[in-house]
Structure formats: structure tokens, C-alpha cells
Specification:
Blueprint lengths: L3 H12 L4 H19 L12 E5 L2 E5 L2 H7 L7 H6 L7 H11 L6 E5 L5 E9 L5 E10 L2 E9 L5
Antiparallel strand pairs: 1-2, 3-4, 4-5, 5-6
Helix pairs in contact: 2-3
Length: 158
């Protein structure tokens, strides 16, 4: 018969230093990516590893499921922030193009190291169709590649 300590040791091994919330977020992200890939517009071609974007000779990886599975996905954390400034789930290409056009590697601000040991950066950008508002685009450097990991409104700047 297993003791409470045995059960806890098994749980700790499964979590591998991650919190249950971290695991839930990762599963939600994986589900959103899978659902988004099934519904991607033809202009956004997913590679599961993202699309290399070339902008002013600066390269970064932009996983297009971030648009359809997160930013413009009803019910997701920052969805209303994008809708509020005129973006629509029916035209994900517009948001994609706007984020790509704002990328400037020399404007990235170092933001420490994430839980995975990768350097984090962010850039303050302005986005909007019907009105413009300040947003933060978050990036991480992983395996020598800069990749967009999040984008959301600047808190407290309504």
C-alpha cells in the first residue's frame, strides 16, 4: 500500500517542477494551436513551428496560431482587447500584418529569463483598426531564434 509520501513523490515527478497552473496553460495552448490549425485562413500557413517573418532584415518566428488560437479567439484572455480596437476573427491577416509591420529588433527591451531558461524581450507597439491603443508584444529567444509568445494591451492605459 502506498503512503502519502509515495503518492506525493509520484506527483512531484509528474509535475517536474511545474505548477498545475503551468501545465493547464500549456495544455490550453496546445489545444488552441490544434484548433487554430484546423481553421487557419489560406494566407496564414502554419508550420507548427511558426512562420519566419522577414521585416527590415530582422527575422523572428511568429506562430500564426497565436492569432487564431489566442489573440482573435473568443473567450481567450486578451480577445476583447483586440476586438475593442477593431480587429476581427474574420480577418486574422490584418492583425498578423500589423504585428509584423511593427517589429523592430532594435526596440526590444530585455525582460529577464523565463521559466524555461530563455531570454525574454518585449516591445511597446501601437495597434488598431478603428482606434489605436498601446500594446506589448512579448518575445523569447529559444535555440537562437526570436519568437513571438504573447501580445496584449498595456495595463492601465485605457
Amino acid at each position: 500500500m502506498e503512503t502519502d509520501e509515495d503518492v506525493q513523490a509520484d506527483i512531484d515527478r509528474m509535475l517536474d517542477g511545474r505548477s498545475i497552473e503551468d501545465i493547464e496553460r500549456e495544455l490550453d495552448r496546445q489545444i488552441a494551436e490544434k484548433e487554430a490549425e484546423e481553421n487557419l485562413p489560406k494566407q496564414l500557413t502554419s508550420t507548427n513551428n511558426g512562420v519566419i517573418i522577414h521585416n527590415e532584415s530582422e527575422d523572428f518566428i511568429f506562430d500564426d496560431s497565436k492569432i487564431t488560437g489566442y489573440m482573435l479567439c473568443p473567450g481567450k484572455e486578451h480577445y476583447e482587447e483586440f476586438v475593442d480596437v477593431g480587429y476581427s476573427k474574420d480577418d486574422p491577416q490584418k492583425l498578423y500584418d500589423d504585428i509584423v509591420s511593427t517589429f523592430k529588433k532594435d526596440e526590444l527591451i530585455y525582460d529577464g529569463v523565463n521559466n524555461g531558461g530563455n531570454d525574454r524581450y518585449y516591445q511597446k507597439i501601437t495597434l488598431g483598426v478603428t482606434k489605436e491603443k498601446p500594446f506589448i508584444a512579448g518575445y523569447e529567444m529559444k535555440n537562437g531564434n526570436l519568437r513571438l509568445v504573447t501580445c496584449h494591451r498595456v495595463k492601465g492605459d485605457d
